[in-house]
Write a structure and sequence with these properties.
Distance between the termini: 38 Å
Structural class: alpha+beta
Mean pLDDT: 96
Strand order of the largest sheet: 32-33-35-34-36-37-38-39
Shape: globular
Largest sheet: 8 strands, mixed
Number of helices: 14
Radius of gyration: 25 Å
Length: about 700
C-alpha cells in the first residue's frame, strides 16, 4: 500500500468529527481571525452590502419553471430571505410587474416550526398540479425532509391525515399517481449504498406505512444509487429504473407488460431519453451496433418500440468535431432543440422529424462571448413554445420567449450590477504539457492591455461539467471594478469539447487536468497579462482539489489561492460522506496501483511530505459544517497541517449552508466579499503576512 496517513497516523483525524465540540471550537476560533483580518474594513461592508442588494433586489429575473399553463418560481429577497414558492400564468409573467400566487412562505414555515429550513425543490404531480412533494433541508444539506403539500388548500398534509412524509435522508421520490410513489430512502440497515444514497426502490401507497412499501428493485452496496420513475405521457406510459453502478455508468430497466424489469440494451455510460416513440442516445464512448460504429459525443435516435423488439437501426442527429460538442437538447411538441458549443460558445438548432428523415435548421442567432440556453420546454402541454436565456461576462441576462418558427420577444432583462465600461472579453488558447490546446477567457479593462496586473483565474476540471460565459455581478463589483483581470479556464475534465475532454483525464490521467491549469497560468505570464506574484486562483469542490494541487505542486506560479469546500485528503476521500461515488473519477485509494497515481497529487499527503520546507502562496480555505457531500474534514485538516508547518493560511467555516456554502443571501454576500477582500489584500496590496 503506502505509508500515507490513515486512522492510525493522521494527527488531525479528530477534525473529521463534523459536529464535535472540539472541531467546532476550531472552526469558530478561525472564523474570528478571518473576520478580524478581512471583514473589519469599511470597504468590506460596502462590497458585502452591494452584493446583498444585488441578490435581494426585485429587479433580478424571477426565473420560471414551466409546468403546463403555470410558471413556478422560487424567490428570495430582503423581506423573504428563506424564500417564497409561487406561481403565475405566462400572460401574467410577461407583464412588467406580474401578480404571483404565493404557495409557500418558507420564512413563515421556518418560524412556526423553529427550523432553519432551506428550500430543496418541489416535485409537482402532473398533469393535475394539485399536489407537490416539497424537499426541505436543515441548513442547506443534501439530506432533505420530504413532505406532501396540497396546492389547492396551501397546506402540508400531515402523515396522520394520509400525507406522504420522509424524514431527513438523501431520498429519491417520484409520483406514479396521486396515491402512489416510487421511493428510495434510508429504510434502515443495509438500505443505502456505500455512497450514502438509496440502494432499494419501492412502490409506496398512500395510507400504508413506509416499512410495508413493496420492493420493486434492489441494487448493490457498491452502486452509487438506485431510483425509479414513471413517464406519464398519455399513450406512452412507462415505468423505469436507473441503477447507477458508478458516477458515470447507469443501467436502465423498463417494466414490461408482464411485470418484469427488462434491461435497456444501450451503453451504460450513455445518456438515454425518450419521447413518445423516439429513443435518444447520447454517447460518451464509441458504440458499435447494427454494423455501424457511432463516435463518442454523438446523439443518435431510433424508433423506441422497434428497438425494444430487437431492431438496431439509428440515425445520427449530431456528431462532434474538433471544435464542436453537444451541450444540451430537449423536445417541444413537434421538434428537438439542440444547444452546441463551438470553442465554448453556444449555437442553437431545431431538428424536425419527417417521412424522409430529420431536417436541421438554425434556431436563433446567438451572440459571441456569451451563453444562450434553451429552457422551459413542455412538449406535453406547451406546444412548440420555448424560452431563451442569454448571458455574457459583461452583459446581464436576458430572457426571451418564442416558439419554433416564430420570432423571439424579450420578456425580462436584468440590470447591470457593476460598471463594465471599457472591459473587454478575449479568448486565448494555452498549450498544455502534452501539446493539447486549452481555451480560456480573459476579462480586463482595455486600459490594462500591455501591462501585467492583478489577475484571478478560476477552474474546475471534472465530472464533464462545462464552464461557459455568464454574468457575475459579484466578481464585477469585487474584482473587475478594482482594476483586476478575471480569467475563466476550460481545462480538461469538463465537457466543453464533448465527453472525451473528460474521459481522457480520469484516474491515471488526472495529472493532465493540473497540467492544463498550470499551463494557462504560465501563458498568462508569457502574454504579459500578469506576473506570478499578482496571479490568484479560485476553485471549489473538485475545483478545491485543483487549488490544493496548485498550492502543493505549482506554488511558484501563484501569489494567492482561494480553496472552497475542497477535497484534499485523497487517501480517505472515498470513506467520507459521498466520496465513494467519485471513485470512477479519481480512482480507488485502497487499490495499490490506483493509489500510486493518486498519491502523486493528493494535496494533504503532499503537504505532509514536504513539511515546512515548502514555500506556499497564502491561501484562504473555506467550507461548511452542513456540507454532507464533501466532508468539512478535508478543509479543517489541511488548515491545521499548514498552520503547524508555519504556512500562511486563513480558514472560514460556515456553520450552515451545505455544499453550496450558504443557506441564504446574506451568507452568500459575506462569502463573496471575503474572497475578493482576500485577493485585494494579497494581490493588489501585497499584504501576505499573517
Amino acid at each position: 500500500m503506502s505509508d500515507a496517513p490513515d486512522s492510525g497516523t493522521d494527527p488531525y483525524l479528530w477534525l473529521e468529527e463534523v459536529s464535535g465540540e472540539r472541531p467546532l471550537a476550531f472552526a469558530r476560533a478561525h472564523n474570528e481571525t478571518v473576520v478580524e483580518r478581512f471583514a473589519a474594513a469599511d470597504r468590506f461592508d460596502v462590497l458585502q452590502r452591494r452584493i446583498l442588494d444585488m441578490l435581494d433586489t426585485d429587479a433580478k429575473i424571477a426565473y420560471p419553471g414551466r409546468r403546463g399553463k403555470w410558471l413556478y418560481n422560487f424567490w428570495r429577497d430582503a423581506q423573504h430571505p428563506r424564500g417564497l414558492w409561487r406561481r403565475t400564468t405566462f400572460a401574467e409573467y410577461a407583464k412588467t410587474e406580474p401578480e404571483w400566487d404565493v404557495l409557500i412562505d418558507l420564512d413563515a414555515v421556518a418560524a412556526a416550526e423553529d427550523e432553519n429550513w432551506v428550500w430543496g425543490g418541489a416535485g409537482v404531480l402532473r398533469p393535475e398540479q394539485t399536489r407537490a412533494l416539497i424537499s426541505l433541508s436543515r441548513g442547506g444539506a443534501d439530506a432533505k425532509v420530504v413532505r406532501e403539500f396540497d396546492i389547492e388548500t396551501r397546506e402540508f398534509i400531515a402523515p396522520e391525515n394520509g400525507g406522504f412524509f420522509l424524514p431527513e435522508a438523501k431520498s429519491r421520490l417520484s409520483w406514479i399517481d396521486i396515491d402512489t410513489l416510487y421511493v428510495g430512502t434510508d429504510f434502515g440497515s443495509g438500505s443505502l449504498t456505500d455512497s450514502g444514497y438509496p440502494r432499494i426502490a419501492k412502490r409506496w401507497r398512500r395510507g400504508t406505512a413506509l416499512d410495508t412499501a413493496e420492493t420493486v428493485f434492489e441494487g448493490t452496496a457498491t452502486d452509487v444509487a438506485v431510483s425509479a420513475g414513471y413517464d406519464r405521457t398519455p399513450g406512452y406510459e412507462r415505468h423505469y429504473i436507473g441503477q447507477a453502478t458508478d458516477f458515470f455508468n447507469e443501467e436502465v430497466y423498463l417494466l414490461d407488460s408482464g411485470g418484469s424489469w427488462v434491461h435497456l440494451e444501450t451503453p451504460s455510460d450513455a445518456s438515454e431519453s425518450w419521447y413518445k416513440d423516439w429513443l435518444l442516445v447520447r454517447l460518451k464512448s464509441p458504440w458499435e451496433v447494427g454494423g455501424t460504429t457511432y463516435s463518442a459525443g454523438s446523439l443518435i435516435v431510433t424508433n423506441f418500440p422497434r428497438f425494444l423488439a430487437g431492431e438496431r437501426e439509428f440515425e445520427v442527429l449530431f456528431e462532434p468535431d474538433a471544435h464542436t460538442s453537444l451541450h444540451g437538447y430537449g423536445w417541444t411538441e413537434n421538434h428537438l432543440l439542440l444547444v452546441t458549443l463551438q470553442d465554448v460558445q453556444t449555437k442553437l438548432y431545431v431538428l424536425t422529424p419527417g417521412a424522409d428523415g430529420w431536417d436541421t435548421e438554425p434556431l436563433a442567432d446567438t451572440p459571441a462571448m456569451a451563453t444562450t440556453s434553451v429552457m422551459n420546454l413542455d412538449p406535453l402541454e406547451g406546444g412548440d413554445d420555448y424560452m431563451l436565456m442569454t448571458s455574457g461576462f459583461t452583459t446581464p441576462t436576458t430572457l426571451l420567449a418564442s416558439a419554433v418558427g416564430a420570432p423571439a420577444t424579450e420578456l425580462k432583462q436584468e440590470p447591470a450590477f457593476f460598471d463594465a465600461a471599457g472591459i473587454d472579453t478575449e479568448q486565448f488558447f494555452a498549450r498544455s504539457d502534452d501539446g493539447t490546446m486549452v481555451p480560456y477567457f480573459v476579462l480586463r479593462h482595455r486600459d490594462n492591455r500591455g501591462r501585467p496586473g492583478p489577475t484571478v483565474m478560476s477552474g474546475y476540471g471534472g465530472f464533464e461539467v462545462s464552464r461557459t460565459p455568464g454574468y457575475s455581478g459579484a466578481s464585477g463589483m469585487g474584482w473587475l471594478e478594482q482594476g483586476g483581470t478575471w480569467v475563466m479556464t476550460n481545462i480538461r475534465g469538463g465537457g466543453e469539447y464533448g465527453p472525451e475532454w473528460h474521459t481522457s483525464v480520469q484516474k491515471a490521467n488526472r495529472h493532465k487536468v493540473y497540467e492544463d491549469f498550470s499551463s494557462i497560468a504560465r501563458d498568462l505570464v508569457s502574454r504579459g497579462i500578469t506576473t506570478a506574484p499578482q496571479l490568484g486562483a479560485l476553485g471549489g469542490s473538485n475545483g478545491g482539489l485543483l487549488m490544493g494541487v496548485m498550492m502543493t505542486r505549482y506554488p511558484e506560479l501563484f501569489g494567492a489561492i482561494v480553496c472552497q469546500v475542497p477535497l484534499l485528503d485523497m487517501r480517505r476521500y472515498h470513506l467520507l460522506l459521498a466520496g465513494a461515488s467519485w471513485v470512477a473519477e479519481y480512482g480507488d485509494p485502497d487499490i495499490p496501483e490506483e493509489w500510486s497515481y493518486i498519491s502523486r497529487y493528493s494535496p494533504y499527503q503532499k503537504a505532509m511530505e514536504t513539511g515546512s520546507d515548502a514555500t506556499y502562496p497564502p491561501i484562504l480555505i473555506t467550507t461548511s459544517t452542513r456540507d454532507d457531500r464533501v466532508h468539512p474534514g478535508h478543509a479543517r485538516k489541511m488548515t491545521a497541517l499548514l498552520e503547524e508547518q508555519g504556512h500562511r493560511v486563513w480558514y472560514h467555516e460556515n456553520i450552515e449552508g451545505g455544499h453550496g456554502g450558504a443557506a441564504d443571501n446574506k451568507q452568500s454576500a459575506f462569502q463573496a466579499a471575503l474572497i475578493y477582500e482576500f485577493f485585494t489584500q494579497m494581490l493588489i496590496e501585497g499584504r501576505t503576512s499573517k
